[in-house]
């Protein structure tokens, strides 16, 4: 059957890839994963076994093998595979978790009496797998794997010798009988050769009663079956040409979980044939699927690159994630996703992706630098510098690693200097240091941004602090308790007490023992409660109680100058006016204006207090400012007019005061008061040295009597007209003309 053209192309690519053994190892491992996704478990098993054979000390290969065995319901064998992997890499969470899971599944298996069997196409693989696991597991470590209680019989039927090898094998272990050349792992690749545990480094032959165990001969039928099974070398059915000539190896001593009487045998199975013999059509289909997955992964990577250039970082991150799902063993995909994660401030994910890239390719410098940059953004200076040095150890000429290592040192120095300046009370210098650190690195380092927010609060630049606080993160977490507490402080200093309270509460929900949040919440609640109590008392007419409640709110933080403080001070000013404490009312009104220069009520309170204190011109200025700030303020025009009138009155002679009579005095009272004052201040009765003053006083008394005795003039006088305006018949600014 003629292979499809696309399969020929894939095969040619695969042939080139298999020339390098390292590439072969990765390809087998990746193809095993692909077979798993396609639910082609026997094919996945064969590739996983080949990956193990190529490098028994590679923990990832044992992990792939364990995955495949779990897929075949061969949990006991999966436990063995994962266990070997864990011994090779004890710190691998992936392997340890998989081992625990396999143990749990194996323990939970129902008994055979209840009808349980592994998948039909897997059960017959158990004997060969036990042999394979014993053999390769021994090669993976110096001490090998634990022995089983059941020795394995050689598949070709030859009797074992005293040292555990067959007579036909004794002279040929580790070499090719034709050429004498050693094969990988010291195992002969000739068919019909037995393998003894004595050939495995660190493996001691199983003994029975003090002597090496003698394996029982298999039955004739078994021998015929074994001999009749075509080897992988002869079949020629591997469409990818992905493996060397097949190894028709007899098993080493296997791993059996059943106790042995010392007389057990291992019966060869029909599974000695190649497990990767795939029909041509299926092979072509698989080749296309593998090729398509790789091509699709590369397309996703290119799409992500373009999205990243356009600033669509979240879309780029998703594209890189899809590329990783299609080709999970490509370091560059993890490196690219790490770059996107850094931009998104997902620093922990960036570190994980960078280190995964390095795990896949130890020479991938950008894996080191991107993990290092993520650490630097989080303020993990030592970890960042160490990774940059590791990158330079791989490639000493890397400009990226060299430059970013210098940046790491600069960021560290600026942040530490900024902290010292703030502790010494120099918030401006500290802010300059923070800005320098932020300019050196993008995204800006978290410690510098946190310190910058603190500096802005100290400098009473609350609005800017709130803006910075909105984007604050700690190790990429925008809702970390420390971040929430600092955001709450920024809101508190901006006067947004309800939001500050909510942020303090959320911070304490996440960390109940966070001191800044506990102190901040206690103070905020006290101030809000005191203000509300003052409002209630004021509305009920309990002026003194209201005054005291507002005082409690203000005294909780005497340094705070926010809109909240402006409201409390304005309210206490109103209460003081009700109590007749005009000077205290004026003082509180000025505090309200200081706390919030845009607070209209503060100016209204100050104008009212000045009117009560007869500071009419000052009151007039406040009323006019209010009209400019809020032209629609009710009664503002009337208030301005009244202040002007009173200011004018204050400048003229007060006739009522001069005659010592009240403003509602009648004509009789006015005349009587005038006669009495005229007699007192008549110039003829005054001493010579006081005559000039007496004349002036006497003249003013005459003017007062003239104005107040005339009803029309008195009305104009009471309206604020001056003597000149009264005599002219119109007030200043309203003069008539010839029309």
What do you see in this structure?
This protein is mainly alpha-helical and about 750 residues long. Among the domains are: about 15-120, Alpha Horseshoe (Serine Threonine Protein Phosphatase 5, Tetratricopeptide repeat), CATH 1.25.40; about 560-650, Alpha Horseshoe (Serine Threonine Protein Phosphatase 5, Tetratricopeptide repeat), CATH 1.25.40; about 655-730, Orthogonal Bundle (Helix Hairpins). The chain has 33 helices and two strands. The chain is rod-shaped. The termini are far apart. This is J domain-containing protein. InterPro entries: DnaJ_domain, DnaJ_domain_CS, J_dom_sf, TPR-like_helical_dom_sf, TPR_rpt.
Question: What key phrases describe this protein's structure?
Answer:
739 residues; mainly alpha; Serine Threonine Protein Phosphatase 5, Tetratricopeptide repeat; Helix Hairpins; two-stranded antiparallel ribbon; 33 helices; 2 strands; disordered N terminus; disordered C terminus
